[in-house]
Specification:
single chain, mainly alpha, about 80% helix, globular
Length: about 200
């Protein structure tokens, strides 16, 4: 038990460092693909009685998902910046309707972002439109899970901000594990419907 815990903690730190290295060496252009790769590894970490080849899994997923994950990452930024400025403009000018639109839009963007990279890491699809549709559907039909994954993100951001910045060396990997744990229950029915193995039994090897 203690040995498994130490191994998992080591894997989390390792994938966290890989995510930081690949994201920042790529000047954040590669952040989307790095995040997909990170989730591929964190789902693997959660599998029972199965060692994780962090380096191999990370770069295999990074390569396979680079184009789509990068394009979606840029699209999220392109939508996010206008929403951010819309929110501040609405606050400054006391525009309630515009404020509500920016808040709802911001929530949809956030929850889509949280779901997209894990979905891209686990599910294979030849049609990006189907992937976007499925992510949107999952993100809007699992409200309780949404609270948990947003809470996980908020908790780790607060830990980094209020305790110490150096905790970023483990926070991203830990966030990946927490989100993977919560989304496992959401993904499993879809995997069963597709005739895939569940996430505990080695899906997507």
């Amino acid at each position: 038990m203690l040995k498994d815990l130490f191994r998992n903690l080591t894997d989390i730190i390792f994938v966290n460092l890989l995510w930081l290295l690949v994201s920042f060496l790529g000047l954040l252009i590669t952040l989307g693909a790095a995040t997909t790769a990170m989730f591929r590894v964190t789902f693997q970490i959660l599998k029972k009685n199965e060692p994780t080849n962090v380096l191999s899994s990370f770069f295999k997923s990074f390569k396979e998902g680079f184009i789509l994950s990068t394009l979606v990452w840029f699209a999220l930024l392109a939508i996010g910046f206008p929403l951010f400025f819309m929110y501040h403009y609405a606050i400054s000018n006391d525009l309630i309707v515009l404020l509500l639109i920016s808040i709802v839009g911001g929530y949809q963007l956030l929850i889509f972002t949280i779901y997209f990279f894990p979905v891209a890491a686990i599910f294979k699809t030849d049609h990006w439109k189907d992937l976007i549709k499925n992510v949107t559907l999952m993100a809007n039909t699992n409200l309780w899970t949404n609270f948990k994954v947003i809470g996980s993100l908020a908790f780790l951001v607060l830990v980094i901000v209020f305790i110490h910045e150096s905790l970023i060396l483990i926070a991203v990997g830990l966030y990946g594990v927490l989100v993977s744990f919560h989304l496992k229950k959401v993904f499993t029915p879809y995997l069963i419907k597709l005739g895939e193995l569940d996430l505990d039994n080695g899906r997507n090897e």
